[in-house]
């Protein structure tokens, strides 16, 4: 179980991680999982993407009991994104165009997170200021409306809060009201559909119908979390115990909370979230929440096709590993001595994680910036 992994020596934790990736890929490629995804998408055709924080607790597939491969994640420090950044805009536009050409609407869950039990279990990316984090989601929503239109007939940016103590989703409506799933009782499940219609009158009916299963799944998760809390088994899941920094994309196999800080390449100042993540890892070691024998820096980049696309992914992964390692060495030299580095690429079609090794001339670190993408 992952709850015991945190205390293992670092080499065994790394072995466990790659075994986890292998198991996830094997399951993802299996006929049952493939059929489950196909059936789900046939019943719920809306494409759903999630803009969220790098915090390992923000795991929407787990919170909503959604099959792996349905929700498209985008992660950055604090869930802070600027759609004016060229690479992020290109990635979002690429996915949106693909979904729309297939005849699908797109629902973006624009999220912020907080802890109701302790503000310092909230979002470190916004210095635990929930109002600032929420205000930023409104900025992202306005940017999306500027790019994709404000009528929301095809693309809908929906602001959602995540309360991490109970893994609760809070849906913010277009009329200023909100639906807090922690306040919904199991016998009120039948009321969710009309409540969503009142809360989100400008959302297409099919999109609301496809949002509903996520909220129903969240109700089940909240009930399970409360049972864990009653048995005093919840502390591990709400405290920071991350022991790895993941940079890049393709970390869907990490469907376990509080193990990794995941940083997408969606910012021109990529050194900021990397430095912040390293500080969190160092804090975890100093507090005794994780062993101080080492941490993992893992870079991964997905590819769609063999050949040139895969070769470029390998170059990008190597670049990300070098760049992130240099940030850690510069900002946290003591921690850097405990850094284990791995690079990989992910076959997106099969979800196979493939490790790669450095076989290129050393890049001049003075020329390495996030703008190199």
UniProtKB/TrEMBL annotation:
Residues 102-173 form the Carboxysome Shell Carbonic Anhydrase catalytic domain. It comes from the Bacteria. InterPro entries: CsoSCA_cat. This is Carboxysome Shell Carbonic Anhydrase. It comes from Nitrosovibrio tenuis.
């Amino acid at each position: 179980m992952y709850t015991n992994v945190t205390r293992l020596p670092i080499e065994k934790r790394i072995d466990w991680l790659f075994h986890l990736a292998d198991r996830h890929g094997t399951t993802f490629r299996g006929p049952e999982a493939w059929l489950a995804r196909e059936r789900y998408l046939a019943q719920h055709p809306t494409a759903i993407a999630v803009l969220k924080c790098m915090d390992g607790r923000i795991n929407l597939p787990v919170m909503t009991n959604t099959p792996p491969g349905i929700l498209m994640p985008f992660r950055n420090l604090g869930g802070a994104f600027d759609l004016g950044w060229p690479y992020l805009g290109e990635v979002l536009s690429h996915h949106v165009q693909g979904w729309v050409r297939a005849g699908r609407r797109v629902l973006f869950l624009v999220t912020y997170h907080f802890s109701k039990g302790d503000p310092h279990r909230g979002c470190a990316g916004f210095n635990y200021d929930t109002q600032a984090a929420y205000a930023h989601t409104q900025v992202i929503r306005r940017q999306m409306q500027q790019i994709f239109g404000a009528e929301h007939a095809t693309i809908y940016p929906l602001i959602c809060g995540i309360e991490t103590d109970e893994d609760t989703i809070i849906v913010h409506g277009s009329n200023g009201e909100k639906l807090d799933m922690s306040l919904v009782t199991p016998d009120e499940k039948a009321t969710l559909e009309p409540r969503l219609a009142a809360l989100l009158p400008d959302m297409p009916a099919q999109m609301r119908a496809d949002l509903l299963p996520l909220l129903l799944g969240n109700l089940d998760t909240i009930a399970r979390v409360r049972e864990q809390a009653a048995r005093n088994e919840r502390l591990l899941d709400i405290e920071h115990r991350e022991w790895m920094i993941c940079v890049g994309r393709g970390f869907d196999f990490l469907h376990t909370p509080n193990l990794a800080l995941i940083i997408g390449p969606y910012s021109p100042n990529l050194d900021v979230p990397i430095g912040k993540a390293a500080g969190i890892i160092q804090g975890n070691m100093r507090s005794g929440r994780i062993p101080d024998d080492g941490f993992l820096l893992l870079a991964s980049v997905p590819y769609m096709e063999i050949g040139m696309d895969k070769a470029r992914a390998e170059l990008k992964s190597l670049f990300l590993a070098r760049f992130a390692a240099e940030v850690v060495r510069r900002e946290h030299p003591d921690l850097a001595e405990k850094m284990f580095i791995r690079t990989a690429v992910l076959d997106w079609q099969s979800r196979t994680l493939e490790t790669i090794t450095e076989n290129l001339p050393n890049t001049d670190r003075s020329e390495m910036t996030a703008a190199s993408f």
